Each structure stands twice: as structure tokens, then as C-alpha cells.
TrEMBL record, chains A, B:
Keywords on record: Aminoacyl-tRNA synthetase, ATP-binding, Cytoplasm, Ligase, Nucleotide-binding, Protein biosynthesis
Enzyme Commission designation: 6.1.1.12
InterPro entries: Aa-tRNA-synt_II, aa-tRNA-synth_II, aa-tRNA-synth_II/BPL/LPL, Asp-tRNA-ligase_1, Asp-tRNA-ligase_1_N, Asp/Asn-tRNA-synth_IIb, AspRS_core, GAD-like_sf
A Gene Ontology term for the protein's cellular component: cytoplasm
Organism: Absicoccus porci
Residues reported to bind L-aspartate: E169, R215, H443, R484
Job of this protein: Catalyzes the attachment of L-aspartate to tRNA(Asp) in a two-step reaction: L-aspartate is first activated by ATP to form Asp-AMP and then transferred to the acceptor end of tRNA(Asp).
Protein name according to UniProt: Aspartate--tRNA ligase
SUPFAM superfamilies according to UniProt: Class II aaRS and biotin synthetases, GAD domain-like, Nucleic acid-binding proteins
Subunit structure comment from the entry: Homodimer.
Amino acid sequence: MLRTIENGKLRLEHVGQSVELVGWVAKKRNFGQLVFIDLRDRTGICQLVFDESFSEKTKSIRNEYVLHVKGSVHQRKDANPDLATGEVEVLVTELEIINSAKTTPLIIADETDALEDTRMQYRYLDLRRPIMQKRLMMRHAITRSMRDYLDHQDFIEIETPMLGKSTPEGARDYLVPSRVHPGQFYALPQSPQLYKQLLMISGFERYYQFARCFRDEDLRADRQTDFTQVDIETSFLSEVEIQTMMEEMMVKLMKEVKGIDIQAPFPRLTYEQAMNRFGSDKPDNRFGMELQDITDIFTNSSFKVFQNVIESKGSIKAIVVPDFAQGLSRKKQDAYTNYAKKNGAKGLVILKADEKDLTGSARKFLSDEEVQNLFERLELKANDAVFIVSDTWLKTCTALGALRNQIGSQLGLKKKNEFSFLWVIDFPMFEWSEEEQRYQACHHPFTQPKAEDIPLLDTDLSKVKANAYDIILNGYELGGGSLRIHDNQLQKKIFEILGLSDEEIRNKFGFFIDAFQYGTPPHGGLAFGLDRIAMILSESDSIRDVIAFPKNASASDPMSKAPSNVDPKQLEELHIEITK
Amino acid sequence: MLRTIENGKLRLEHVGQSVELVGWVAKKRNFGQLVFIDLRDRTGICQLVFDESFSEKTKSIRNEYVLHVKGSVHQRKDANPDLATGEVEVLVTELEIINSAKTTPLIIADETDALEDTRMQYRYLDLRRPIMQKRLMMRHAITRSMRDYLDHQDFIEIETPMLGKSTPEGARDYLVPSRVHPGQFYALPQSPQLYKQLLMISGFERYYQFARCFRDEDLRADRQTDFTQVDIETSFLSEVEIQTMMEEMMVKLMKEVKGIDIQAPFPRLTYEQAMNRFGSDKPDNRFGMELQDITDIFTNSSFKVFQNVIESKGSIKAIVVPDFAQGLSRKKQDAYTNYAKKNGAKGLVILKADEKDLTGSARKFLSDEEVQNLFERLELKANDAVFIVSDTWLKTCTALGALRNQIGSQLGLKKKNEFSFLWVIDFPMFEWSEEEQRYQACHHPFTQPKAEDIPLLDTDLSKVKANAYDIILNGYELGGGSLRIHDNQLQKKIFEILGLSDEEIRNKFGFFIDAFQYGTPPHGGLAFGLDRIAMILSESDSIRDVIAFPKNASASDPMSKAPSNVDPKQLEELHIEITK
């Protein structure tokens, strides 16, 4: 063993001991005849002291050289309180230069001003920065904690195929031409959905998998070509039983990884409540400014815009931003209006409160009574700003929810070291597709409608709710799932409602429906986005900070981003040809 | 919760308790007015008793129906000693039929006579067989044990990209056309080799990953389109230190998963010793019949075949099969001769021992002194059979090793419940390719040659040994690895020896060689084949028994085997066209 102890672990208790250390040169400086080197390994940094006998050898050493030293641990005269090892130093007696290093194109430190492009091109150096190492170590701590929980609950990890048939997840599949079956293609999995349901039919009862999933979509800041999903499925459990387990898993995770006690059960909001109060099906409840319904105040409004909404049974809702009116310039108001429009609103009413009245361009359309009612309903105080959207219920909620999030961010209300979990439940089973002029499955076609809503399948699809649920953390969807249909007839009915012909059903899902005939248990589960959990817990903004070798649309990453041109012979073997 | 206890866990201590159970009907039989049902879940089977009040309801129940029952636990009058729950039964008071089941196309039992094709087509039912569930549970127990060891040794699990550039592993890559970069292709990884070395350059020091790896090769009984590799890499450790850790991991694994104490350190054979003694670089040392060198006995042989071999500095080797001569018919001898030829031998000499002499068609070419020497050297006894091959050293070893394995199997010497580990070390660095008339890397081009053999790089490549090692279990290669080159100059030299031009080096490995310039630590590791470990420990012959949804060249598996025809529009988007 080249080392007897890791650099970051040296403490006063080691004074007087002989040690061997290895690591990278983080800093070198001369002080008279002495040379000081900070030697870094993954555990931290330790100060080495070389006396003049090493002056020839240390001359050549530069940052990021790899060293192996022997020496003795001494107490430092001038302790460095910023460093865990700051009370000691190692007086070197033997030095071996294991490897040299060119000047690195980015500085190996937590803070970096390197461009994203440079970081990607030299990812192996970017990952040498201690903060990046900590993030990937935290990601590992997260998987360990989750696995540990699931193992203790007798879940079985089972790997499912990477090369299979297309599954009906909605996004585009990555295709893989088959050499053995010319002209045919495998698909990379978008999720193990069908397999995990088959495993329940097989009687495994509790399954999990840390599964790589693929979607052939454009790269975005928070979207990679592939992602890691913590995929969980159970048999014989109710929705609440599944959720309770997942809460236990999260409580344990937060304690072990972040040292934070969180309380279970988490708040549960129905989809409708979440939209009504937060204008989002993934509410960020770290801050207030909730949406408030004010439709009834304007039942007899003379304001044309409100009149129309009332007539078409739409909604009028407001958010109040306290102490925000002053400084809300015309320019800022325009920006918020544009933001609301970008999120689907036709317009945005902005009013400023003083002691008793409201000001703003829409004030003239409001009666004094309406203003009075607003003051009471919204508990307005002087200098409050009021943002009002009126439209269909969904559009009003969505636009105002987006605005709430935007202002919450701007006001710094989304504290990265605060962690707020909740469940959104009772999602609608179907959503109307304007484009296709028919109902589509909100979640996926295997989701179980709520038992009490089954009669509605024949009368009003818009009102059917599903046993579907999402777990939300800080406004991000951490995961989502549902109970699945285990009744063959009901599954067929749902397929029919979704407009699949018998032939389509047979072609696409024939084997799957067949499987349901041989004793299918009630089952359900959910899937977590691991990358996202890791991002939030490591208090980063970028999913790329918690993936060792991410893809980046703009950067020139030689390892993972740019695919390769392929030997024409290989394409010939695959029976494919590149067009244009 | 539908159940209060799992079926397989019911014992005498539960007598008198009220319980709720769920599961599948494994067997139903009538006994007078009573109906008995064996209810199965993943933990086992429990006997239910229904009195006549249920006779109407139980009439419809058939095998594999899913039931939910309430009842009370009673002691059985006629205990079933074959069943863990055989001392108790549950007298049912409430019955809910959760789901029905058609007659299954294969019997849900450990023993099955179903064809491979049927098992694959109805894999979800094949997996319902308790023995298959146990195998997949064992696979999970294996990964848990290995992860646990690695976590406690401060290894960090890091995921590496699935869509990347081709890596130089030798086999064919699966190609994935890129939608974003028309005409270009990603490759699915054959191993995370380059990434894990980059992670060492990044300073992670100890990395592991349960990595899916892909090779676009024909399916075989023990080869899938993809496999799972336990990929491990370390910095600053010696070959022996790495091996010692892996031994600790295996000792723990065997204890936890099989309840077996194995001894470390494992035997270490050099490649040369392994070939000399077992005629294989993955020796099965559960049985003897080792190869014995008898070249010197025939220095002055008058047997033409041996003479030629002696002259060309080849090897003559023998294996002795005790008590095997009787019954070794002419027909069997021909079969062994053919087997030896199939494995590269020009012929096979078979001799039978009696008290003092040998018989066989080659006896007449041997002198009495030679026979005497054979008797002494090989410690022959009456009724021993002697098999001799003479050829170049490698061909002699290989053919005789194959024969040894074959006879060992036939004699039942490869006991599935015996587990024998060993290391094969000191592999050659290069092997001569007859086809390409040049030296190739035995392991891969990043393998470190032994320090003492570096001068041989300029004089005799055939003699250069590498810091490369395989871990063997029962004649299977469980895993293999090496120390890697961490010196830029040496890496370039190896590339040159392998005949790569400067341009090829730059194109293929430019970024990789660049990375080595920024402070690369000494590093090395290895990779285990998880599927194979699971197969051997579950005492199965087929890799498909430990993969939930395997591919099968011959079977019609609707989920995973046959890829799909693709919508021509999708191909157009990918800028590819199917030829012919």
C-alpha cells in the first residue's frame, strides 16, 4: 500500500506518527529554504513541508503532479482553521514523483470560472474539483440509502432488457438496428413499465431497479439522452401503503444523506387542490403567495374581460406579493405581463395597494365595492402588489402558477437548503387532446381509474380520476406512479376509449393482455428520477453536476457528446444506408 | 394491507391466530365436503381448508387464481414434512377471488418439461416457478453482498454513459443512429473501460459500477446481446492489493449467499503454470487428472510422431484417468481422438495400463524403457488409461486440457455444489495473430507490462508479461483485470508496437492520451461477469436461468427477442434507409 492514511484524515492525534501519503499537488509555495505543498486526495488536503535537502527535487514539481511521500506528522505553529487538517503538517523525509502534469486548462478548485465548454472538454479535470467529487459521492450515498431501504423491505432488484420492443411511453425511441434480423430494429427502453408489470404477474411482489431509460429528444439544460430511474413496483398494496413506504424511504434518505429530519406523512394535495392553490401539479410550497379565487367578487363586473370569463364559466384568480408594489415599474409590469402571456394567459391585471385603495390601469374598471371585497378577501396591506389572471380554470391556474414561481425565484424564496415534500394525488385519468380531437391517457394506458369513477367511463371521461400520484420536492416532480389495471376487461375498455382498434391492441399489446389472463395480482408502483433527486439534494441548479459524463448540446465533449461516423462496411452489414 | 403474514412463514407458533393471506392457487383438491387449496406466494406455500359453506364459491376456483382469504391457523393432524409450513393449515372464514386464470401453458413447479420455446414465450409464467424466483433472488443477494463490501471499502458507484463513441474492445458495437447529428451513430458500450480510467484521472480513487455492456455478436447458449459487468477500478494499489480485496469480497459473498466458508488467499497460478498443469487459462481444479510433461522420456524415441515433436522443440504431455481402461472401447477411443482433434491436436495416443505394461495401438512404437519410465513418472496402476498429445507447447496443452475437461464432466467430477476459486496471473502482454501477421494485445492496449519486462519491448515481444490477472471459479472466468499504463510515453510505445499510426492513435485515443498528461495516478482494476457468478452460485447450467428476460436465438419471446419493424417515417428522420 503506497499510503498509510488518507490526506483529509490527518488530525492532532496523529502527531509524532510516521505516515505515507499519495495525492495531487494542489498548491506549492516557497518560504525561505522551505517548500510547502498542499497534497490533495479525494478526502481532502494536507500540508507537506520539505526542507532544503529537497530543494532540487521540488523545483520541478508543479500543480497536479502526483506524489508519494513519507514523513512525520507535526503540529502546525500557525493552524489553518479553514482546513480540517489545518492543525497538522507532514515533514517529508522521502519523496517520489509518481507522475507529472501539464498546466490544467481549468483550475482544480470548488469555484471555477471555466466555461461550460471547457468543463465538458476536460471533464476528467472538472471532476477532479472537490465540489464535483462531493456531488457524485452524494449521488452514491443517495442510491445506497434507497437500496438499503428497499432491500430491508424485501424488494428484489431485477434487471430488465435494454434491447427490446418499442414501449408505449409517448416519446421517441432510440432505435438500434439488428444485425441478426436485417431491416429490424431494437428500441432502447423509455422505462421498464411493461417488464415490471410482467414481473408482478410472475409473482415477485416487490421489485425495484435503478434503470437507465432513453428518450430520443433534443438535449436541454435539464434533459439528457438518457436518465436513471428508480423503478419500483409492488403487488397487493394500496395507494396509501405504497406512498407510506416511499415516505419512509425519503425520511431515511434525508436523515442519512443531508442530516435533516423531515416529517411524514407528507402533505397530500389532490391535483385540483394543487392547481387551485399553486397553479401547478408540482407545487413549490417552500413559500406562500398562493393563488386565491376571486371569481365570485366579479359576478356583476362591468369590466368586459371579467364579464366574458364569468359568462363562459371561467376563473378569476389572484396572487398577492407583499410589500412589492413600490419599485414595480412600468417596465417590470410589462415583463410580468409578457411572462404570463408566454404561459398561456391572454393578459395580466396588475394592481398596487395603498392603505385603502388600489391603483393600476385596470382600477377604473372596478367598482369601489369590488375593490373593498378584494381588500378583505386578499387581506391586502399597503404596498402589496396584486396579479390577476382571468381565463378558463386551467389556463388561469397555469399562468398564475408560473408567475408565482417566477416571482418566488426572483425574491429568493426558493431556499436550496430547505426541503419540502408533498404528494399530488387523484390525477385525471384522461386529458383532451385539441390536436387529435380525442381523449388521451394522462399517465399511461395501464393506470387504474378510481373504482368509484368507473361508471363515468361511459358518461363523462373528463371527470374520471385515476389512482395516480406524484411525489414533489421543492417544485420538482421527484417521481410518479399509479396503481395499474389488473382486470383484463377493464384494460380492454380503456384501450377502446383511447381509440385503439382491436387490431392495434393485438399488435401493440397482445402479449401483454395475454399475460393478464393467467392470474394477475393487483399491483402498482412508481418511479423516481434519480438525477433530479441528486441535483436537488446537492443543492445544484444543473442536472449535469450530478452526472459524471453528461451530454451537452453546446459543448465539445470528446467522450460522450459527438457520436461517430461509422465504417460504411458496418452499415452494409446492418442493411442500412445513410440518405442525403 | 391485504395480508397479515406471508404464506411461507406460517409455523406452529401462529396456531390460534387470525390471519389474512394472499397468493396464487398452486393446487386444489376435494376431500369429502372439504376443499383443500395450497396457496402460494413468493415465500412459499400454505394449506387452506374450506368447509362446505364455501363449496359453491370454491367450485369455480382453478390453479393460478389469485385469492385473498381470512382464517385461523390450526395444527395439521397429518403434518407434511416436505413443506416448511407443513405443520399448520388455515381454516378459511372469508374468501375473495381477486382474479381468475386460464390454464397455464406450463406447470408452475420447480420441475418442468416445458420446451425452451414455451418457457420463453410465457416467460412471466416461467418466472412464476419457485426455482426461478429463487435464482433471481439469489442474483439480488449476490449484488447486495458485493455492493456492501465495496461500499464499506469506500468505493463510489458512478454511472458512465450508455450512448458514446466506439471503444476499442474488439467485438462489434451496437450502433444507435443519432437524430440530432444526421448520419452519425452512437455506440452502446462494450465496457466502461475508458470512462473508468478517466475517473481515476479525476481522482475518485475507488470506483465501481454494475454496468450493462453490449456486444453485437450472435446469440449463443451462454451469450446474450448484453451482459452485466461488475466494473471496479482503483488508484494507488498494487496487483496483490487489488486481488486481496477481491478475495475478501468473494469470501464474504460465498458466506452470505451460499453459507460456505472458503479460504483466502486463493491459489495463484501463472498463465504458464495453468497451461502446463491444466491445459487451460481457466483451470477447473475441482478434480485432478492434471497434465504431466513426459517430453524428456521420449528424447530418443523411435516413434516418428514423437521424434518430430522433439526435433521442433514441442511438448509431449499426458493425462492419466484412473480405473478407466476397462470399458474404454474402440468406439470411445475414436470419440476421444476426434474430440482432441477438434481441439487442435493432430492425434491422440491412448494407452491402457495393466500391472506392468501398456497396451494400445501405439505400444509397439515405445521401448520397454520408455514404458517403464511412464509407469514411474505417471505412477500408473492397473486399469489406468493414459492419453497423450504431442505438438507445439500451446497446442499440446490446449487439446489435452479440453480432453481433461471433457472426461472430468463425463465422470461427474465437476460437482456443482463445490466451489473452487483461483487466480491466473502473469498473462502474456501480446499474442501473435497468424491472420494479421502481427502482435496484438492479449488483454487490451492499456494493460501495463511487468516492469522487469519493459526492456523486452525492444527485443522479444513474445516474452513480455503483463500485470494482468483473471479470477477463476470452477473452470469459468469470473472476471479479469489488470494494472493500467499510467505513463504517457509507455502508452504511446505500446500503441506503436500494436501497429497504430500516429494518426490512428490521435483519432482513436487522442483525448484519452491527452488526459494522461494532467497527473494520472497509477491505477488498475477488474471486471466480473455478474450473470456468470449468478449462474454458478445458483448451480445452473444456463445463463438464461439468472436473467429475467433473456434473449433466445431459437425462441419466440414476444417481449425481448424479436426487434420491430420501424415506421418508415422514423427512419427518414434518422436519415437512414434499409437496403435490400
